[in-house]
């Protein structure tokens, strides 16, 4: 049942749209990001697995490192086309050619504001430079993509002049960049339709997100006839970034019914890899890949979702399709259906009266602004139901850490696990990391630790503040088990929260 989603866009249905990923070029232009060759190669291999058609690997002339990365990716035997960026300069094009790329993306400013204030050339000179660059690329028998930079602020007649000239010079595909993200969706539709009426080669679009319209503008460009869109993982890129790959590809796939080569089940894994390498966190509410994209807390929603997920999810896009998990979160807005289900999943069956008391307890904790962890839920339930929650499998006996400016942070953990005493030590980037790794070491044969989230908050002010740590550990089935602990010692709070969630995990396994 697709409701009204195809209304007026039937012409895109089943049309193949090529996905051009520029995470390693425009994405890396995000202020503060620099990826090394190994990271770029790993991302390139992941993007190949994801099914991207063209990958812009970098700007070869810009640094030695970029040249090496582009070369390594071009020679990695990937199935996608590897593209390198070049100004309309032979030196830049030569640098790309030497790396062995399949495609060269050459660009020049065409808007008056950029032409006058950045390259200081007349319109005629820019046109000549563009044609010369395209001819030079084609002399090397390499696919050529030409971008009229700042196309969306360029005089239309001149823009058409330049696109027709590069087409005449043998260019394979033209790109229409909305370099500073100023288009509205309907203006983008009209512009691409008009360009499409004037050229006979494929059209690609590159939209920036200054007004949050990058994905909408890319989709309108496709509606108007563009056959390729430029995107980045997690929407990275200059300023507010570029159109996000996941949002663009999933909209094309699920809303329009268009065809892309994207293997959507790898979307989440790719987003997480790029998050890890770049250090730019994915916001919780980001569509598709955000932690909350398929999470439900409100009672009315969770009740519906537990009955049938389509009630409060798009339905045409499920978490499974994109490698995500659906989560039911307990908190201020939770209702009895969700709380009952969460307890039943752990084998806890309260009476209606007990359930009401558990709900009251949860709501009063949540009203104080606290998150409800699994550990809170089970503690409340065992108190209300008067049943001990069972013996913990892991009992911490000793924890010691050594840290300082000249010593590597090291932790030693001693614990009794299912009646046998174990001791382990490990090092880390800080004392908390070292302690968590030492726990990982002792627990190794019983469970795999996959920490999904980790939050530290100071409860009071001052250097003697209580640190509150909330930890979420993912089990083998993708279920996240959360627990919280507070202590004046941040390492003790972290280890305690971790061991509490592991004990819940082990109880549910036995
Ligand atoms: C919208 C975009 O994303 S475009 C891509 C932007 N990406 C980057 O700039 C990242 C990598 N860039 C770099 O490492 C450097 O800017 C380089 C190596 C390319 C050039 O560095 P520099 O020679 O130090 O010049 P600088 O960056 O200060 O200025 C840009 C130069 O390129 C020229 N230029 C800019 N665009 C073009 C173009 N498309 N074609 C030809 N020349 C161009 C400018 O006129 C200026 O030349 P000038 O030095 O003769 O005045
Ligand atoms: C190089 C070009 C396509 C670019 O990144 C832009 O115009 O934003
Ligand atoms: Mg850009």
Structure overview:
This protein is α/β, with parallel strands linked by helices. The protein folds into three domains: 11-278, TIM Barrel; 295-385, no CATH class; 394-509, 2-Layer Sandwich (Double Stranded RNA Binding Domain), CATH 3.30.160. 39% of the residues lie in helices and 19% in strands. It contains 16 helices and 16 strands. It has helices at 37-50, 64-74, 90-99, 112-119, 123-139, 156-168, 185-196, 214-223, 245-256, 267-278, 299-307, 336-345, 352-367, 374-385, 431-443, 490-509; strands spanning 18-21, 54-58, 81-87, 103-109, 143-149, 173-178, 203-207, 228-231, 295-296, 327-328, 394-402, 410-417, 420-427, 451-458, 467-474, 480-487. It has an eight-stranded parallel barrel, surrounded by eight helices. A three-stranded antiparallel β-sheet has the order 11-12-13. A three-stranded antiparallel β-sheet has the order 14-15-16. Helix 13 packs across helix 14 and helix 15 runs parallel beside helix 16. Acetyl coenzyme *A (ACO) is lined by residues 26, 29, 59, 61-62, 87-89, 107-108, 118-119, 149, 179, 238. Acetyl coenzyme *A (ACO) binds at residues 26, 29, 59, 61-62, 87-89, 107-108, 118-119, 149, 179, 238.
- The CATH architecture of the largest domain: Alpha-Beta Barrel
Helix content: 25-40%
- Count of DSSP strands: 16
Given this structure, which CATH class of the largest domain is correct? Alpha Beta
Identify the overall geometry: elongated
By CATH's scheme, which homologous superfamily of the largest domain applies?
Aldolase class I
Helical run tally: 16
Gyration radius, to the nearest Å?
A: 27 Å
- Report mean pLDDT, rounded to a whole number: 94
| CATH level 3 topology of the largest domain | TIM Barrel
* End-to-end distance: 41 Å
Q: Which cofactors or ions or other ligands sit in this model? A: acetyl coenzyme *A, 3-methyl-2-oxobutanoic acid, magnesium ion
What is the number of independent domains? 3
- Could you describe the largest sheet, including whether it forms a barrel? 8 strands, parallel, barrel
Strand content: 15-25%
Strand order of the largest sheet: 1-2-3-4-5-6-7-8
Low-confidence spans? none
Derived from helix and strand composition plus strand pairing, the structural class reads alpha/beta
